[in-house]
Amino acid sequence: MEATLTAFEAEEEMEVLVSDYVIIPKEQNLLVVRQLEETPVSSQLYKVDLTLTNLAVYRPGCGMALRKSIIDSTIEIFRRVKVDFNAVAQTHDQAAWLAAVARGTLYHLHQPLFIRRIHPDSTWQTEKKQHKDHLYGDSLSFVVYLKAVEKFFAGNQSYPYFLQRNFQEEIKNKIRSFSVDELS
């Protein structure tokens, strides 16, 4: 709690903070902890960049802390973007992540603040085995998600950071390139 509160005090614009974690068992091949594309703010604190890769959640909700100011945006995204980056039903973790990255207020603390146990027979692992294209950023599922994101943010003035970065064009280009690749 202390590390989280300290980070929020240091960065007033921060609305969502995610942290690193320790995985047990340590020697496992069930979970890949993905690198985020981010910009350093201080020794262990980074601002998560608005990129196509970072539209997917790469830290679990149990390691998220939110300011009250992000709640309305999270609810709006949860209700209107019906799928997550795997093209399955939207989750509150994904909605909070997407709201914060689109607002430029998602931060990452490079400090393990909790322990995550990985089970080979968990629901998450079963889902991963059944849908091999899930959890990877270059799949048809991800493009379905990008289309939902594009539709939600089209002209949405509530997200000036997203609009200023001309990010919608990058999303459109990714969707078009994937469609071309699929036809080849």
Keywords:
5 strands, alpha+beta, single chain, five-stranded mixed β-sheet, 184 residues, 41% helix, 17% strand, globular
Structure description:
The chain has 7 helices and 5 strands, in the order αββββααβαααα. Strand 2 and strand 3 form a beta hairpin. A 5-stranded mixed beta sheet has the order 2-3-5-1-4. The radius of gyration is 17 Å and the shape is globular. The N and C termini lie far apart (51 Å). The longest helix is centred in the C-terminal third of the chain and has 17 residues. The chain is α+β, with helices and mostly antiparallel strands and 184 residues long. The mean pLDDT is 82.
Brief summary of the model shown:
The chain is of the alpha+beta class.
Q: What is the terminal-to-terminal distance?
A: 51 Å
Q: Total helix count?
A: 7
Secondary structure class reads alpha+beta
Runs in which pLDDT lies below 50 for 5 or more consecutive residues are none
Q: What is the 3D shape? A: globular
